[in-house]
Each structure stands twice: as C-alpha cells, then as structure tokens.
Amino acid sequence: MSPFFVMSLLFGLTFGQTASLCAPSEYIIHVEKRECAYCLAINTTICAGFCMTRDSNGKKLLLKSALSQNVCTYKEMLYQTALIPGCPHHTIPYYSYPVAVSCKCGKCNTDYSDCVHEKVRTNYCTKPQKLCNM
C-alpha cells in the first residue's frame, strides 16, 4: 500500500465521525391563513443533512441519554417576519419563521424543531400564490 493511501485511510477513520453533511439548505415555506386571499411562498434556509449516529447493540445496558441519536439542527438562527397579502383589516397578516444561520449535529429540541419526519407532503398552497424573497 502507498503511504498516501494509508494516510488518507487514517485521516478518514479519525475525522469521519466528526465530519457531517449538516448545513443550511434552501427551503420554501408555504403560508396561508383562512381569512386571507393569498398563499405566501417564503424562501428561507433550514438545517438539513446527514449526522453520524451509532446504533448500540447493548441497549438494555445503557442509560436512555446514551441512546439518543443526533440530528441536523439549528446552531444559530434568527427570525424574520413576512406580511401575508390579501388579508382583511381584522386579521393579523404577519407570519414569523426561523432562518438557519448555521447548523450542528445534536439532540433535537422540540421547542423550535419538528423532530418527526413526515411522509405526507403538507407544504403546498391551496390559494393563489405570492412569492416572498427574504
């Protein structure tokens, strides 16, 4: 074996567990209110990607905290607010949403993340659509 191949293999084994493909990713949120005439399509960023996890065969021997799997989640985020067009005066026409600034692999915090992967596509408009570039 060549020395370059051996060094590449050692580097991959050493840093492969810490490297991940978890990063901010472009995403479109579709927002509508029953009272408003339009659906708003908002371009934002979310955290998405792959995080290294380990499946333990000794689940009965470990504490529950040692069994939780890491997910791609927010490290830094900020909130922006968009105005939904076509709303009557008695309706609050604002929608606030998170924007991922940076991401990390960590435990899922249900205070600000949806920790369940849905198989049903629910992110669509039923009303005429307006695009919001933030």
TrEMBL record:
Keywords, comma-separated and alphabetical: Disulfide bond, Glycoprotein, Hormone, Secreted, Signal
Gene Ontology terms for molecular function: hormone activity
GO BP, sorted A to Z: G protein-coupled receptor signaling pathway
SUPFAM superfamilies listed in its UniProt record: Cystine-knot cytokines (SSF57501)
Subcellular location as annotated: Secreted
Family: Belongs to the glycoprotein hormones subunit beta family.
Subunit structure, as described in the record: Heterodimer of a common alpha chain and a unique beta chain which confers biological specificity to thyrotropin, lutropin, follitropin and gonadotropin.
Listed name of the protein: Thyrotropin subunit beta
Gene: Tshb
